[in-house]
Specification:
Blueprint lengths: L13 E4 L4 E9 L8 E3 H6 L5 H5 L4 E2 L11 E4 L2 E4 L6 H6 L9 E9 L5 E9 L12 E7 L6 E5 L12 E6 L8 E6 L2 E6 L10 E10 L8 E8 L7 E2 L4 E6 L7 E4 L2 E2 L8 E6 L8 E3 L5 E4 L10 E10 L5 E11 L7 E6 L16 E7 L7 E8 L4 H4 L2 E9 L7 E4 L4 E4 L10 E10 L6 E11 L3 E2 L3 E7 L7 E4 L2 E2 L6 E5 L6 E3 L5 E4 L8 E10 L6 E11 L7 E2 L3 E7 L6 E5 L2 E2 L9 E5 L7 E3 L5 E4 L10 E10 L3 E12 L7 E2 L5 E6 L4 E2 L10 E2 L10 E5 L2 E2 L9 E5 L8 E3 L4 E4 L9 E9 L6 E12 L3 H7 L1 H11 L5 H59 L6 E2 L2 E2 L5
Parallel strand pairs: 2-8, 9-15, 17-24, 26-32, 34-41, 43-50, 52-61
Antiparallel strand pairs: 1-2, 3-6, 4-7, 5-6, 7-8, 10-13, 11-14, 12-13, 14-15, 16-19, 18-22, 20-23, 21-22, 23-24, 25-27, 27-30, 28-31, 29-30, 31-32, 33-36, 35-39, 37-40, 38-39, 40-41, 42-45, 44-48, 46-49, 47-48, 49-50, 51-56, 53-54, 55-59, 57-60, 58-59, 60-61, 62-63
GO molecular function: calcium ion binding
Protein name: Cadherin domain-containing protein
Subcellular location: Membrane
């Protein structure tokens, strides 16, 4: 900021007017004059106008009280001396108080001064402006937006600088600090308004902003602060968004996850600023699409699962618009759903009305079907049809299959069979309710898709059998004093359809009768004698009267005036599990006194209790096991319980306790071979040439003559009963099933000898059918031999058996066998060295003797040669044509 240079003139001039009653004194002063110089003697000033000085000397001056609120506060009057009483003389300060105008060059401060007479002095201090204020912009930065494509010479009003000086010194002009953009912009200052003139059309795509720096200068030459004007070229939005593709296509699996991104569409805008694209989804479909789009990113996401079986193709459009919505563009989108194997095959059964059960609990489950057939139904009878459907396309599934997966209980052959040709369900065998009267059959349908899927349907097959009474005999007691209509007892027969059972008394009698619907037996007439009434009661299936059952009822007629304790049953049967921790209760017997019906008066005791692992509560008849029971030792206990009433009368009843088996015994192999030879014909056996192989193996495959050849039999026993003692045999190594097969009777067959190594150790384990199942293991070592050289087979494999035993025996014996092997090798080497030395010695001896005989023979030959030569000197005819004719030696 430039500091102004101020000329501190004290008093410019003084003028006095009308000094009769009122005297006007005008004092001219420049602003910012030194305050200490602003003092005036009123008498001296008045004397300059009037010569009667004595008059003024007698005056006493005082300030007007009415003017103290304005200008009087700036002055102080002491006697005749008037002084300016403020820190500085600033014209602009008085302008703020509206004592004068900023535009005026002079500012008048008027003050009324009174005397003790009627004489009044009007004092006016006239302050003249100086260029002491620097122009200033109220803002250092402004932002303006000028739209592109406007016609040239467009004006944009700018804020002006502020200068409180008078018009003589205030703003003179505005200019750019830098002249970089003088060809584009111009500053126009007129009528105290500043405008920015655009000299040419602006283009936002070429340049989007300009930084202008503006300065103001007053008439005194002082310059203002810099105004930074940020000019932003406003976008006209003449370009519409453009997608990167003319259309979008996408394939998704129907297993596509919800809220995952299907694809991303993208559009761009060549406009300068409005580059924010708003995406929206447009569809002509009435049904809502399973897609949504992120309006900012263009990301298309799945909102709900898609199903190929419902819709395979979705077509819609994506709209890309500017944020202001003026321009937009649209692109088509196609999303095709690919079928995956996501639908399980469904099984439908149509059971014939004669065999369908209604009002059965299982019918609440759509995956369950209940069937009932008569026990005497014929084999091959069709009871229903079956249908398998799959909503997936055949390109995915390829083929559907159905099979009978399981049939419980496993102890019996399944009573149903599937006819795949006619897709019907038929009866497979004769039904026998003595074995089982209910079967749970599981049908399973499979497709061939990826991954393969399956579904199951459960069939509950109930066999309508003849009714069966819960007891073979019923025992009832009845007093001879009972009146007709009294209830004697109740019998019950079990059946798959109890509502169809009808009870009748087969034996002719007039004393008792039975309720045909519930089996209640009641008295019809009085019986006056004590005896046992023996009756036969029959339960008949009313839908098929060929199905019935009979039971015997014994009614004991007694005289309550003379009777012994009466047990509820003539005998009691209890079942108890073995290996149960004792003591524990197994059941209760009950007897009553027919006279008093007082239970507390009956005492119970065991007969021959010392030999039994039981005791009885003497008061309530509760039987308690005192020792742990073992079915394999004793499986049944038969004893008597005696009831005594107050030591006067007794009776007894028979107790049967059956020990139920638990799976507490492991199958045990007995009398089994540990080694077996398999004899085959025309097989090549060779010894491996590898020094690291100690076991002989075949170089050629076993021929097909080995197919289904019995090789051995294994046998294991299990002391448990029923399924707990039933044993099945399995191979522990799955590779063994490529060569051998084992049957449930323990027979082992070789059916594939190809690539069978020898010797081959076959591990078999026996497994019972208890819960939990128990197993044991056994192994057999097989050797394959030529059937034509049986006598050599044992010797042939002696070394191998030793080596195999060495290799396969338990690790604790390895060091022992290894030392034995080294000792054997050392002995063999020693014997070999001795034999080699002996043989070499004999060889040298024989060679020496042979050389001597050859030397003698050579001498003889030489002698013969000399003789021939000597004879030839005397015989000229020994040769003919250069060849020797004959030589005699």
């Amino acid at each position: 900021m430039i500091t102004p240079v101020i000329n501190h003139m004290s008093v410019v001039t003084t003028s006095i007017y009308n000094c009769k009653d009122i005297c006007d004194l005008n004092v001219y002063v420049h602003e910012n004059a030194p305050v200490e110089n602003l003092k005036w003697n009123l008498i001296d000033l008045l004397k300059q106008r009037v010569n009667t000085t004595n008059y003024f000397d007698q005056l006493q001056f005082s300030l007007s009280t009415t003017s103290k609120t304005t200008t009087a506060t700036y002055f102080q009057l002491s006697s005749s001396i008037l002084s300016y009483n403020h820190s500085q003389l600033d014209r602009e300060e008085f302008c703020k108080l509206n004592l004068c105008s900023y535009e005026q060059y002079q500012c008048d401060l008027s003050l009324s001064i009174f005397t003790q007479t009627s004489f009044i002095v009007i004092f006016q201090l006239i302050i003249q402006d100086q260029n002491d204020i620097v122009p200033i912009f109220d803002q250092s930065n402004i932002d303006i937006v000028i739209r592109e494509n406007l016609q040239p010479f467009y004006h944009y009003q700018l804020p002006t600088a502020r200068d409180l000086d008078s018009n003589m010194y205030n703003i003179d002009k505005y200019s750019f600090v830098n002249n970089e953009f003088n060809h584009i912009f111009e500053l126009i200052y007129s009528n105290n308004e500043l405008n920015l003139k655009v000299l040419k059309t602006l283009d936002c795509e070429q340049r989007s902003s300009y930084q202008l720096k503006i300065i103001a200068q007053d008439k005194g030459g002082q310059k203002s602060n810099i105004l930074s004007c940020n000019v932003t070229v406003g976008d006209f939005n003449e370009f519409q968004p453009k997608f990167q593709q003319h259309s979008y296509n996408k394939y998704i699996n129907e297993s596509f996850l919800v809220n995952d991104t299907v694809m991303i569409v993208s559009a761009t805008d060549d406009d300068c600023y409005d580059k924010i694209i708003i995406y929206s989804l447009i569809s002509d479909s009435i049904v809502a699409l399973p897609f949504r789009i992120n309006s900012k990113t263009g990301e298309i996401m799945l909102t709900r699962s898609v199903d190929y079986e419902q819709q395979t193709t979705y077509r819609f459009r994506i709209k890309a618009a500017n944020q202001d919505g003026i321009t937009n563009s649209i692109v088509p989108v196609t999303i095709q759903v690919l079928d995956v194997n996501d639908n399980e095959p469904r099984i439908y059964t149509n059971i014939l009305a004669n065999y369908k059960i209604i009002n059965r609990k299982e019918i609440d489950n759509d995956n369950v079907e209940s069937i009932i057939v008569d026990e005497n139904i014929s084999i091959g009878q069709v009871i229903g049809t079956i249908l398998v459907k799959d909503d997936d396309s055949m390109k995915i599934n390829k083929q559907l299959t159905i099979s009978l997966l399981s049939c419980l209980p496993l102890t019996m052959i399944c009573p149903l069979i599937l006819d795949h040709d006619s897709m019907t369900i038929r009866i497979a065998r004769v039904l026998d309710t003595e074995q089982d009267d209910m079967y749970k059959i599981v049908l399973q349908a499979n497709d061939q898709g990826t991954p393969p899927l399956l579904s199951q349907r459960h069939l509950f097959l109930y066999i309508r059998h003849r009714p069966r009474f819960t007891q073979k005999k019923y025992y009832f007691y009845l007093s001879i004093s009972s009146s007709p209509g009294s209830t004697i007892g109740h019998v019950e027969a079990n059946s798959t359809e109890s509502r169809l059972i009808e009870y009748t008394i087969v034996t002719a009698t007039n004393f008792v009768d039975i309720d045909s619907t519930n089996g209640t037996i009641y008295l019809k007439e009085f019986i006056y004698i004590e005896y046992v009434l023996n009756l036969t009661v029959q339960a008949t299936n009313t839908q098929n009267r060929a199905l019935f059952d009979q039971t015997i009822i014994l009614i004991h007629m007694y005289n309550q005036n003379n009777c012994s304790p009466l047990f509820d049953h003539l005998s009691y049967t209890f079942n108890v599990s073995e290996q149960h921790i004792s003591p524990f209760e197994i059941g209760q017997v009950h007897a009553m006194d027919c006279t008093s019906n007082n239970k507390l008066s009956v005492t119970y005791t065991l007969i021959e209790a010392d030999t039994l692992p039981f005791r009885i509560n003497n008061d309530n008849g509760m039987l308690i096991v005192t020792h742990e029971l073992d079915r394999e030792t004793i499986d049944k206990y038969d004893f008597y319980v005696m009831a005594t009433i107050e030591n006067r009368t007794t009776s007894k009843t028979r107790i049967y306790v059956y020990v139920i088996d638990r799976n507490d015994h492991i199958p045990t192999f007995v009398d089994n071979y540990t080694e077996r030879f398999i004899y085959v014909s025309s097989i090549e056996l060779s010894t491996s040439s590898s020094s690291t192989s100690l076991i002989r193996r075949h170089n050629s495959d076993i021929d097909n003559s080995l197919a289904s050849e019995f090789v051995t039999n294994v046998y294991a026993i299990d002391m448990d009963d029923g399924l707990n003692g039933k044993i099945n045999y399995y191979f522990s190594n799955s590779d063994a099933y490529h060569h051998f097969h084992v049957y449930n009777n323990g027979s082992i067959y070789l059916y594939n000898g190809k690539n069978l190594p020898t010797p081959y150790r076959l591990e078999i384990y026996a497994k019972d059918n208890g819960q939990p199942a128990l197993t044991s293991k056994n192994s057999i070592l097989f050797y394959v031999c030529d059937i034509n050289r049986k006598h050599e087979c044992n010797e042939h494999y002696q070394d191998e058996k030793l080596i195999t035993t060495f290799l396969l025996d338990e690790p604790s014996k390895t060091n022992y066998y290894l030392g034995s092997l080294f000792i054997m090798i050392a002995i063999i080497c020693f014997v070999f060295i001795v034999i080699s030395c002996t043989t070499y010695h004999v060889f040298l001896k024989v060679k020496h003797s042979t050389k001597m005989s050859q030397r003698t023979y050579n001498c003889r030959i030489e002698a013969r040669k000399n003789l021939i030569v000597s004879d030839s000197l005397y015989d000229n005819t020994t040769t003919t044509n250069g060849q020797l004719k004959s030589v005699s030696v």
